[in-house]
Amino acid sequence: MPTTMLTPDCLRAAQERVLPQLEGHLKEAPAAAQRLLSAMSYANLEGGKRLRAALVYATSQTFGASLDHADAAAVAVEFVHAYSLIHDDLPAMDNSPLRRGLASCHIAYDEATAILAGDALQALAFEVLANDEQLSVATRLKLVQRLAKASGVQGMAGGQMIDLIYTGSVEKLSLAQLQQMHRLKTGALLEASILMGCDCAGLTDVIVTQAITTYSEALGLAYQIQDDILDVVSVEGHLGKPQGRDAELNKMTYPAVVGLDKACEMREALYLQGMTALQPITLDTSRLQDLLTFVVRREN
Fold first, then answer.
1. pLDDT > 50? residue 27
2. Which domain holds residue 184?
């Protein structure tokens, strides 16, 4: 297995395309709210892989949509992801001082501003989707519904609540409970990014949709397992956030629950599951393959 995973072309292209659009949506605010806008920009524009935007673009391109039709969805998932990171880092949550190699938003600004920045980014994500005239009203509604579900109690917020309950607890999660927690906390938005790309392309084929859903579930869980592994084995300074934080907080992670070797085995099984899921699709799935490979081979 290679020790270094280069950024795939489709991820690099997504980074170049989505960044100026994120900037474009973060320019207007009342004079009295400029500090809030500054915090929102700080949390969005400084670093980040843009993986979720890349998944939107890759899926939509696979099924024949123009990039213009996927732009709003790509921007929206990045705004929601940034909001979730701001809130995850807060003292009441993970209390992390570092994000993307920089001071967390509540450290760079203050806790109240960080909370408001997260709130505003989440609202802005849905505003961007609702106002996108490139797509039909029906498609916009579907995108809003999908992103809302991935963000709320059946997605990130629900998963974060489970994580908070068991962090530092003497009660341990079973493997099934751990998988459910991470399918909500991390996997839901990754899966939504992929399926929103399908929505942008108007995909209706049931068999293909099921294949993409299986792929998305494998990628979402593999991402979290690799995250947990990297917290144990990463070279200091590569993560862009404090290393060993999971163990310090006694978090329920895959290495903690099943051991490092078993976690690596599970990651590889999910990699194979995701790649296999793409095989029935007769279109060019190379972008999706490259992004899955990046997810499981990345070093930060």
1. yes
2. 9-294
